[in-house]
Write a structure and sequence with these properties.
The protein is of the alpha+beta class. It folds into two domains: 126 residues, Creatinase/prolidase N-terminal domain (Creatine Amidinohydrolase, Chain A, domain 1), CATH 3.40.350.10; 224 residues, Alpha-Beta Complex (Creatine Amidinohydrolase). A hairpin with a 6-residue loop joins strand 13 and strand 14. Helix 7 packs across helix 8 and helix 9 packs antiparallel against helix 10. The protein is elongated, with a radius of gyration of 23 Å. The termini are far apart. Bound molecules: manganese (II) ion.
Length: 356
């Protein structure tokens, strides 16, 4: 944690601020370790302050190291203003996409002696590169996710509702150490597979359905994300063709994914394969996104993101093809960028599983 705070200090040096207000939950957790639901951090050149209310004083003292815990009296912003004044800060940075207009107005009123300076995604950029502790947590989250997939495949049969499958997946993950699902579990069977974000519904599984299952576990704050598509019974020719096409695109992306390559080029490697078979318009989303304390982090594997990949980034690779009225196929792995290439954290088989 100490290193993370130092990285923040170094990152804001060029902005000439003498303090940084941190208000985004995942960012304060990342910097301090505090997991409660209410806090403001004030990081200055020499001190780290965590402001929280009565409910969390003891927890904050227990979870953090190197932070002075200050109890909020009245509004959090009042306590923040007192600290800024006490420290004589002249220019304080704040997170421009976490502070609301109303809060900004309050800051201006209550902190009249310091200049307020907007910082954009500064901590998120530091969070792009996962340290070894974070990588183990992501690995553990991916492992629980794999185990859950292995558990659920036997339970999928005609007549079972999508919502029942998502419930059992989530129950299994929690029993095996997950805090919660990483997002609303997607179980999209048959025609519903054409909805890339088809959250499990009351539709029953039918013979011949392709089923897109996209889910993940959260382990100690860190998210996993994996998608597998399975088929009930024997796949017909089109199902097999599209499954193999998506798999080929996914494997191609994994082959080129390494440090030094642009995100957009990884996206292109997969997209090109799908476009060449005439399904380009049916792959309407980006190839992947980074994952960590949040399910969607930057950078993204998308045609619009030219970020160069670096070791320590953890990102999904998830091409898909969706046909209205027919269904869809998506295959997704969670991947760690290593110094020489990438390591796939999702280990569930990518051979098309035929149920029964
Ligand atoms: Mn994903």
């Amino acid at each position: 944690m100490r290193k993370r705070v130092e990285a923040l200090r170094a990152a804001v040096q060029e902005n000439g601020v003498d303090g940084v207000i941190v208000t985004k939950q995942q960012n304060w957790q990342y910097l301090s370790g505090f997991t409660g639901s209410n806090a403001i951090l004030l990081v200055t050149e020499k001190s780290n302050i965590l402001i929280t209310d009565f409910r969390y004083i003891e927890q904050a003292a227990h979870e953090t190291e190197g932070f002075k815990i200050v109890k909020q009296t009245g509004l959090a912003v009042d306590t923040l203003a007192e600290q800024v004044k006490e420290l004589g800060l002249k220019k304080v940075g704040f997170e421009d996409d976490s502070v609301t207009y109303h809060e900004y107005d309050l800051y201006k009123k209550k902190i009249p002696d310091a200049e307020l300076y907007p910082l954009h995604q500064v901590i998120e950029k530091i969070r792009r590169i996962k340290d070894s502790g974070e990588i183990s947590l992501l690995q553990k989250a991916a492992e629980i996710t794999d185990q859950a997939f292995g558990y659920i495949v036997d339970k999928i049969k005609p007549g079972v509702k999508e919502s029942q499958i998502s419930l059992e997946l989530e129950y299994f993950m929690r029993q095996n150490g997950a805090e919660k699902p990483a997002f609303d579990t997607i179980v999209a069977s048959g025609y519903r597979g054409a909805l890339p974000h088809g959250i499990a519904s009351n539709k029953e599984i039918e013979q011949g359905d392709l089923i897109v299952i996209d889910f993940g576990a959260v382990f100690q704050g860190y998210h996993a994300d994996m998608t597998r598509t399975v088929v009930v019974g024997k796949p017909d020719r089109q199902q097999e063709e599209i499954y193999n096409l998506v798999l080929r695109a996914q494997m191609k992306a994994l082959e080129v994914l390494k440090p030094g390559i642009k995100c957009s080029d990884v996206d292109f490697a997969a997209r090109n394969i799908i476009s060449n078979e005439g399904y380009g318009a049916n792959f309407g989303h980006g190839l992947g996104h980074s994952v960590g304390l949040e399910i969607h982090e930057s950078p993204s594997l998308s045609p619009r993101d030219d970020t160069v990949l670096e070791p320590g980034m953890v990102i999904t690779v998830e091409p898909g093809v969706y046909l209205n009225g027919w269904g869809g196929v998506r295959i997704e792995d969670l991947v760690l960028v290593t110094p020489v290439g990438c390591k796939i954290l999702s280990t569930s088989t990518k051979k098309l599983i035929q149920l029964q």
